[in-house]
Amino acid sequence: MQVVLSYKRFRRRLWYWLDHSSRQRLLVEEMQFHIESNVEELIAQGMSRQEARSAACKRFGNMTQKAEDARLTWIARWISDLGQDLRYAFRGMRRNAGFTTFTILIAGLGIGAGTTVFSVVNALLLRPLPFRDPGRLVWITNGNDFTSTQTEHYSDLRKLDRSISDLEGFADWGVGNRQLMGRGEPERLTSVPVTQNFFDLLGVQPLIGRSFTTQECEGSYAAPPATLLSYNFWRRRFASDPGVVGRKLILDNRPVTVIGVLPPWFDFGSVFVPGTQMDIFVPWPLTDRAKPAGNTMRIIGRLKPGVMLPAAQAEFTALGKQLEKQHPERNGFTPRLMPLAQHVSGTVRAAMFVLACAVGIVMLIVCANLSNLQLARLGARQKEMAMRTALGAGRFRLLRQMITESVTLSCCGAVLGLLLAVGGARELAHVTALNLPLLDTVRIDGHALAFTSLAAVATGVLFGLMPALQISAFSLSAGLQDAGRGSTGSKRHAWVRDGLVVVEISFACVLLVGAGLLMRSFVRILDVNLGFRAERASALRIDPSFRISSLAQQNSFLDDVLHRGRSVPGITAAGVIDVLPLRDDRSWSVSLKGHVYEKNRHPEPFIRVVTDGYFEAAGIPLRAGRLFTERDRAASEPVVVVNETMARTAFFGENPLDQTITTYDGRHVLGAVVGVVGDVRHEALEEASGPEMYLAMRQTGDYAAMQLVVRTALPPDNLAAGIRTALRPIDPNLPVREFVTFQDLVERAMSLRRFLLLLLAGFAFFALILASLGIYAVISYSVSQRVQEIGIRIALGASAGDLRVLIVLRTLAFAAAGLAVGLGASRTLSSALGSLLYEVTPGDPITFVAIGVLLLAVAALAGYVPAWKASRIDPMTALRSS
Amino acid sequence: MEDGKAKADLLPGTLDMLVLKLLLRGHLHGYAIAQLIQQLSDDLLRVEEGSLYPALQRLELNGWIEGEWGLSANNRRARFYKLTPEGRKHLTAESARYRRVTGAVARIMGFA
To answer: Which of A41, A328, A556, A771 is the most exposed place for a label (fewest CB within 10 A)?
Structure first.
């Protein structure tokens, strides 16, 4: 009853409010009827019309006031005041179109940048992972974050552990490790082997079809009986045809049944392997019979309800020790647990933090700048404000009106900012060249909208507050007088403006230093000796579509490929390797023949399998001995080539040449060292390479892929077609989608750094512009305030040059103050850049000096314009002006 | 509003009750209500007549009275108000409350 009543009341109120103008009119009409009736009655009693009217009006009281009171019964006072303020604000905005446009633009850019960065940070760090109850998911590694676990350990863990309710894993994916044949062009697919309940663990239900059965998980790994398709692959290859479920595909020349399609929101690649598209998932057999020996996998577990991470970690540590003891023949195992979210976003956390801080500073500069503008405008509106006060506006009322104005402006800016952010987020979500996890989930969602509104209001209040508080500094009489210029109010307010500019300069300085340090790191990285020469080297995936059954067959294929490849015009060298630099890696524990090692003390070089010609094609220099030749074949003595790091570290100070390397248990000879080559940065541009060992491809079948690497005399743009034509006779089914230049590989490895640098540089540039505008505005203002003084100086003989120097010096004083604060703050903050810096210290003197000089130069320039104008003031006009 | 110089100021909140009570007689416009208050109180209670209108708005907003436009005795457009069932209920409650309050005040003052 009560609810119904108050609802009715609310509806009525709303209706009144919407209809308020006609209601107001009717109310006045009603009141007028009242007065008229009274007048007529009084006339009937014998008064004159004039007397009657005045008596009636007296009896009625203040009609305007009563009308207002009546109106307030249906509109709360603050709403009506707000309406008034808004109307006034919009009127002011229209009148001052230049100021309005500028403010909206600046606020829009600031808020747009803020919202975009927020949407990225939200997607990468704040939003929970797109899985069921993601808070309980843990990432389990062996030792450090990247080392995977031997499958045997995994099987034992599954049986033994008590704190994890479900333990699932996926194995190392290989980009393009499966080949799809059949209808359409043959295509290389990227498949991920997963354990049976992997999707259940994450709470992923297939969009159509079902997940793997136990039986399917006991099949052979090389020929999986069933496969699940990723949504994107299903859409691309099968045009979203639901009929594909149940059909057989030919994968690596063997039939496999499609049992389901995964939902669109499940993007394995974007969570676990940023920048890679996964096409299909196959079951990962764990039975002793079917599993590939010696393989490793990545493990995800779900903590049982009530179990905390430290307890689980303690249990796993104990289990690891126990397993190591029970199975000395296996690799060592020190399990480390961390929340899955931390693993996924771990690498980008620092970058995101820097980005968020940077954009926060940008928004503060925007506020300072707009505050300054508003103050300048306030100077011009001094009389208006004084007039309002004189007419009875309270101080609070004026303050509220000023804030309303600034919030209105910033909200208009926010609309622009939101448009920018929507565009920005959409752009970012589609950048595939960027190795950022979850990047495709970046979008403007409810949280981002909330952030925008908050930013809009906060910006408005922040930049409106300072000017609004200044109002109280006006004295009424001074404000109303024409020459209110020298009043204490405007002096104080000049002081505030100067302070704001100093703040702007110091903020800009912090951003510039940050961007500068990143820039220097970037340049350092460009200068890094990668160990190979990226320019003019490219690679093409060439695994044959037929099955290779013997080394002889493999070698004749290789001979054929290399022969034909080298005969393509423009190609100066060609060779084959299994994994490209900066892409994949694998490492083996090995032994030097004739040495006994303690457990876990074996050298563990990265393994690359290459043919002759690879070193020449990639531009890797020979340091000692010889490279592989065509004669290093199955029949000849096995040979290996090691890199300088391995030559230095693995041979106990002896000459590595002619030493024999075996598997870690000494059972199999891998080869005799015939050569030493230069180090190659295989893992990351920033990381020096570890030990590396090259095996001769013609002597082994133990590799996953063949990449033909060629070096060309000309830019490699049109080369792909030539190579394809040349290779077609060998294998007409050769899928040839993947042609990549080494330069691409390097670019990709730098993408996050480049992205961060570009954004930070953009922010810093924006900040610099804003700060210089701030300087310009303040100096111009102070010049305009001192026209008379300047006029007198000129009249007394000051030269234009003197004046300019005077004003520019004043500008430089500002800049110096801002710099002192800014550089100090930068020195403290720059250590937060930490791992993002490369071979540059956080206090890099070159950067600091350069930024200091840059800021001073820009400040001088910003001050010179008003100085130049001031020096052209005509003393006569100046002296007459007041 | 409060500083109106009536011969006897109304107790706060009583104007609403008086208006509702008068409307028990039927449809009345604002002027008629003001006249009636004056007549019935023998000119003792003087409302500043303008104050009637915010009160009428308030009552209407609360759904206790309903106004509609009609023609007055001298053939002019006037707004007539009538009591709604809810207004009737409210009046009963208000009168009871008022009687209790004034009774209590009277007892203390020794009038009763």
So the answer is: A328
Instruction: Give the closest residue to A642 by CA, choosing from A595, A601, A606.
Output: A606
Q: Which of B51, B63, B72 sits opposite A61 (nearest CB)?
A: B51
Phi, psi for A391 (deg, rounded to 5): -80, 0
Rounded (10°) CA dihedral A598, A599, A603, A604: 180
Task: For residue A580, give the nearest of A538, A622, A641, A533 by alpha carbon.
Answer: A538
Whether chain B has a CB inside 8 Å of the CB on A19: the answer is no
- Give the integer Cα–Cα distance in Å for A500 and A777: 11
Q: A5, B63: Cβ pair inside 8 Å?
A: yes
8 Å CB contact of A27 and B77:
no
- The backbone torsions φ and ψ at residue A688, rounded to the nearest 5 degrees and listed phi first, read -65, 150
Contact A66 B76 (CB under 8 A): no
Inform me whether the C-beta atom of residue B49 falls under 8 Å from chain A C-beta atoms: yes
Residues of chain A with pLDDT under 70: 1-6, 74-78, 144-148, 172-177, 182-184, 275, 287-295, 432-433, 471-493, 545, 584-585, 716-717, 735-738, 881-882
**pLDDT digits over A819-878, tens only?**
999 999 999 888 888 788 888 888 899 999 999 999 999 999 998 988 888 888 777 777
Q: Best residue in B10, B28, B43, B49 to probe A by mutation, most A CBs within 10 Å?
A: B49
User: Do strands A739-741 and A692-696 pair parallel, antiparallel, or not at all (unpaired)?
Assistant: unpaired
User: Are A36 and B76 an interchain contact pair (Cβ–Cβ within 8 Å)?
Assistant: yes
Structure tokens at B10: 């109304």
Comparing C-alpha atoms, which of A608, A557, A548, A554 is closest to residue A578?
A: A608
What's the Rg (C-alpha) of chain B?
15
SS3 A654: coil
Helix orientation angle between A63-74 and A77-95, rounded to the nearest 10 degrees: 100
Q: Which residue has the tokens 């589609």?
A: A430
Phi, psi of A303, deg, nearest 5: -65, 140
CA A265 – CA A224 distance, rounded (Å)? 25
- Do the chains contact at B76 and A38, CB–CB below 8 Å? no
Instruction: Strand B28-29: give its sheet, edge to edge.
Output: B28-29, B77-83, B65-71
Instruction: Give the count of beta carbons closer than 10 Å to the beta carbon of residue A422.
Output: 17
Question: Using CB atoms, which residue from A5, A16, A61 is nearest to B50?
Answer: A61
Chain A residues whose CB is inside 8 A of the B65 CB are none
B4 touches chain A (CB under 8 A): yes
The shortest CB-CB distance from A74 to any of B30, B61, B72 is to: B61
In a 3-state reduction of DSSP, which class is residue A610?
strand
A and B: number of Cβ contacts within 8 A: 81
Judge if pTM exceeds 0.90: no
Cα within 13 Å of Cα(A445), Cβ side: 12
Evaluate whether ipTM surpasses 0.95: no
Q: Report helix, strand or coil for A549.
A: coil
Long-range contacts of B81-90 (CB under 8 A, 24+ apart): B81/B19, B81/B23, B81/B27, B81/B28, B81/B29, B81/B30, B81/B33, B81/B56, B82/B23, B82/B26, B82/B27, B83/B20, B83/B23, B83/B24, B86/A5, B87/B20, B87/B23, B87/B59, B87/B63, B88/B24, B90/B20, B90/B62, B90/B64
Is the CB of residue A591 less than 8 Å from the CB of residue A625? Answer: no
DSSP type of residue A408: H
Would you call A230 helix, strand, or coil by DSSP? coil
**H or E element, residue A191:** strand A187-194
Per DSSP, the residues of A171-189 read: EPPEEEEEEEESSSS-EEE
Pick the closest to residue A720 from A710, A705, A706, A731 (CA basis).
Answer: A710
Name the phi and psi angles at A166, rounded to 5: -155, 130
* Partners of residue B74 in chain A, C-beta under 8 Å: 37, 40
DSSP string, A480-509: HSTTGGGSHHHHHHHHHHHHHHHHHHHHHH
